[in-house]
């Protein structure tokens, strides 16, 4: 990855809706060069996907919870099993294995507290390997960024 690739990635992280021509102009390369590089960055997995970021408060009531999960058994296959279980739920936006402390931290987005309780029941209470669940509920989001420095 060279400086041109870094400029492309930075520009796309700010606004991925740019046309190829607009992007090429912004990063000071020709349109064919830009297209070829974006294609390579995508095919190599550097660019995982391009999405629209939705403001949760604009689409209805929402509650963000940061949830710590500790498992009874931390064998690799049991950790992978739990990850697959929570990844299948649309309310789980992010899942991290962490250390030290709990085994996982999840970021979940639900409509309200009853929806969180339903999520907790289906994802945690029904799992025999879940030992402890600790949830924190966001009262205000002062920063949200998806950009990674490259």
Automatic annotation (TrEMBL):
GO cellular component assignments: cytosol
Stretch forming the signal peptide: none
Domain HTH asnC-type: 1-62
GO BP: regulation of DNA-templated transcription; response to amino acid
The organism's place on the tree of life at top rank: Bacteria
Coiled coil: none
Alphabetical keyword list: DNA-binding, Transcription, Transcription regulation
CDD domains assigned: HTH_ARSR
InterPro entries given in the database record: ArsR-like_HTH, AsnC-type_HTH_dom, Dimeric_a/b-barrel, Tscrpt_reg_AsnC-like, Tscrpt_reg_AsnC/Lrp_C, WH-like_DNA-bd_sf, WH_DNA-bd_sf
Gene Ontology molecular-function annotations: sequence-specific DNA binding
Matching PANTHER family: LEUCINE-RESPONSIVE REGULATORY PROTEIN, TRANSCRIPTIONAL REGULATOR AZLB
Protein name: AsnC family transcriptional regulator
């Amino acid at each position: 990855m060279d400086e041109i690739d870094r400029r492309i990635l930075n520009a796309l992280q700010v606004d991925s809706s740019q046309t190829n021509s607009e992007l090429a102009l912004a990063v000071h390369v020709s349109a064919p060069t830009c297209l070829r590089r974006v294609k390579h960055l995508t095919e190599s997995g550097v660019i995982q996907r391009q999405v629209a970021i939705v403001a949760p408060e604009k689409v209805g009531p929402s509650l963000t919870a940061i949830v710590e999960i500790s498992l009874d058994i931390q064998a690799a296959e049991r950790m992978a099993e739990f990850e697959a279980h929570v990844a299948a739920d649309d309310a789980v936006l992010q899942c991290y294995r962490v250390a030290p402390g709990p085994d996982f931290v999840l970021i979940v987005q639900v409509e309200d507290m009853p929806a969180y309780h339903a999520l907790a029941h289906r994802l945690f209470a029904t799992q025999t390997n879940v030992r402890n669940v600790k949830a924190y509920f966001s009262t205000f989001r002062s920063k949200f960024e998806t950009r990674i420095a490259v």
